[in-house]
Amino acid sequence: MPTHLATPADARRCGLPPPAAASFPLADNSRDSIVICEPTSVLWDPPRVGAHGMADLICLRAGLRSSPSLPRSSSTRAPPPASQSQVTVRFTSPLFCCAKLCKSRPLLAAALEVSKDGSSTDLANSLPCKGAVETLRSADAVCFDVDSTVILDEGIDELADFCGAGKAVAEWTAKAMTGTVPFEEALAARLSLIKPSLSQVEECLKKRPPRISPGMADLVKKLKSNNIDVFLVSGGFRQMIKPVAFELGIPPENIIANQLLFGTLGEYAGFDPAEPTSRSGGKAKAVQQIKQDHGYKTVVMIGDGATDLEARQPGGADLFICYAGVQMREPVAAEADWVVFDFQELITKLP
User: Fold this and answer.
1) Could you tell me the pTM of the whole model?
2) How far apart are CA 192 and CA 199, in angstroms?
3) Out of the domains of life, which is the source (predicted)?
4) Distance (Å, rounded) from C-alpha 141 to C-alpha 150?
5) Active-site residue flag, 10
6) Catalytic one among 10, 32, 56, 147?
7) Kind plus residue range of the DSSP H or E element containing 284
């Protein structure tokens, strides 16, 4: 069973045990640090870390903006930081083990030894199904989920952690993303725990700006160069997604997301239930509306969660690509038309 490497906040959210070995700060004045949870083997610094095989995902909260490659070897050694003894990382099988960078500060990366359980290896749909590449190339538009797809974070979990309700909210997020509870139930439950004020949302965005997934900006540019429109269709919050859209050059009118409501003094007042993405099956309705409004014939949905898979309902998305480069949700991946772990896989398929 892979063990996650995480920041203290991540450990709390994921229900991981307390740090078993040590905790190392990522950078001066950083709110983050690496905590090592059993079993442990750690690799310090290559400044660039990538993924090979991507059958099991180690969640590394260490995070450079780019992610080139970690050597494919069963044992890798790198120079330790000046104040620490030398450490190594060992992959039990380089063909299925991987290190996927999800967060970083300069000059630090880490990986854990994992053991193969076979549960997520050899996905049949890691290669595109028949016609998938042609559908992507001929698409009028591509709709992206935002959390754990366009960005490396779950926005509502980040906001919850910032507001002091991280662990309880993360449990609801996991249920929502795997489809074990209706999305609208999970959304209402999470917001009732957070009750974020407008000032808290703004401060969270300032102190914890969203981190774009590696390759996402290049993929958006490639789609646009092929005259394929790009939309963000998310169960997250419009207020937190607008900066992401701006950074990627996606017009605000191409955002379909939930809307937080605030009172006259900026206090939390709920969310807009009229938004289609506030409920299960809403992304299918959102895609249907996009098709109707723009006269599109073919639309592709890319995301990691159950609500993204739901978008591939009759009249909705014509192709669902599961992006598992941040979170591997096996029930979703199993039903996808195509599973990718790196956006470069899609970029190379476009002319």
Assistant:
1) 0.67
2) 17
3) Eukaryota
4) 16
5) no
6) 147
7) helix 282-294
Q: Provide the angle, in degrees to the nearest 10, between the axes of the packed helices 238-248 and 155-162.
A: 120
pLDDT confidence band for 279 (50 / 70 / 90) = confident
Mean pLDDT within 219-237: 97
**How many alpha carbons lie under 13 Å from residue 38 in its C-beta half-sphere?**
3
- Has 56 been annotated as catalytic? no
pLDDT at 18 over 60: no
Q: How far apart are the first and last CA of the chain?
A: 39
Enclosing domain of residue 256: 132-347
CA angle 126, 232, 290 (to 5 degrees): 100
Same domain assignment for residues 65 and 173: no
Domain count, the chain: 2
What digits encode the pLDDT tens for the residues 242-255? 999 999 999 999 99
Asked whether residue 127 is domain-assigned, the answer is no
User: Annotated catalytic residue: which of 10, 32, 56, 145?
Assistant: 145
Element (H, E) at 76: strand 75-77
pLDDT digits (tens, 9 = 90+) for 96-137: 222 332 333 222 233 332 223 333 445 667 888 889 999 999
Residues in the chain: 351
**Close Cβ partners of 223 (under 8 Å, ≥ 6 residues apart):** 142, 229, 230, 350
